[in-house]
Amino acid sequence: MELPELTPLPRPPLFKTRIASGLVVLIPLVITVAVIRFLFDFTSGILLPIIDPALADWPALARAALSLVILLVIVYFLGALAANIVGRRVLGLGESVVLRLPFVKSVYSVSKQVVAAFQGEGARAFKAVVFVEFPQPGMRAVGFVTSEITRKDGSVWNTVFVPTTPNPTTGFLQLIPRDSLEQTDYSVEDGIKMVMSLGVLVPE
C-alpha cells in the first residue's frame, strides 16, 4: 500500500538547528563522562580506604589520580586477558560462577548481551535495518532484523527489534512476515546513529 504524499515541512529556525546539533555533540560526551565518573567513584570507594593510610602525606588530588591510574590499569589488564586464550578461559570460569547466582545472573547476562549487540562483532546480531509499520497503520518505525523463522506453512517471518529513542537498549520485539518489511540500504551503524540522534543524523 502506497503512502499518501506529504507536504514538506518548513525548515526549522537556525536557532533550533544549532540547538539540535549541539545536543548531538553534548549527549555522547555527557554519557561518556557519566560512565567514567561512575567507574571512578566505584574504584575510589574500594581503593581509597586502602591507599589513604599508606599515602596519608599525599594531597587528596594525587591520591584520587592514583586511583584513576589503577582503574585504567585494571581495565587494560582485563582487555589483555580477554584477548588471550588462557585469559578467556579464566574469565569464562569466573563468568560461570556469576551465572549461577540468582538475580545476579539475570542482570549480568542481559547487560552483557546489550553491550555485545552494539559493539564489535556483536553488532552482527543485527542483520539489517528495515522500516516496520509501527505503532499503528500508516506509520513507520526503524527496526533491526535479528533472525529469520520458517513456519510450518512455509512462510518466512523475521524477528525485528524496534528500539526506543534515544536509548536503543530498550524497545519492542516483533515477529513480522518478511514480505511486510520495508527494506533499506542503511547500515546497522547508520540505523543506530539515527535512533540515538532522535532522527537528526539521517543517512542520505
Written account of the structure:
The protein has 204 residues and is an alpha+beta fold. The protein has two domains: 14-98, no CATH class; 121-196, SH3 type barrels. It contains five helices and five strands, in the order H-H-H-H-E-E-E-E-E-H. The protein has helices spanning 14-54, 60-82, 85-98, 104-117, 188-196, and strands at residues 128-133, 140-150, 156-163, 171-177, 182-183. The chain has a five-stranded antiparallel sheet, covered by helices on one side. Helix 1 packs across helix 2. The mean pLDDT is 75.
Outline the secondary-structure elements:
Elements: H1 14-54, H2 60-82, H3 85-98, H4 104-117, E1 128-133, E2 140-150, E3 156-163, E4 171-177, E5 182-183, H5 188-196
Antiparallel strand pairs: 1-2, 1-5, 2-3, 3-4
Low-pLDDT stretches: none
Structural class: alpha+beta
**How does the major sheet shape up?**
5 strands, antiparallel
What order do the strands of the largest sheet run in, or round the barrel if closed?
4-3-2-1-5
Tally the structural domains. Answer: 2
Beta-strand residue fraction: 15-25%
Helical fraction: 40-55%
Nearest-integer average pLDDT = 75
The tally of beta strands, per DSSP, is 5
Helix-strand topology string: HHHHEEEEEH
Please tally the helical runs, counting DSSP H or I stretches of 4 or more residues: 5
- Global Rg: 23 Å
Distance between the termini: 24 Å
Cα shape: flat
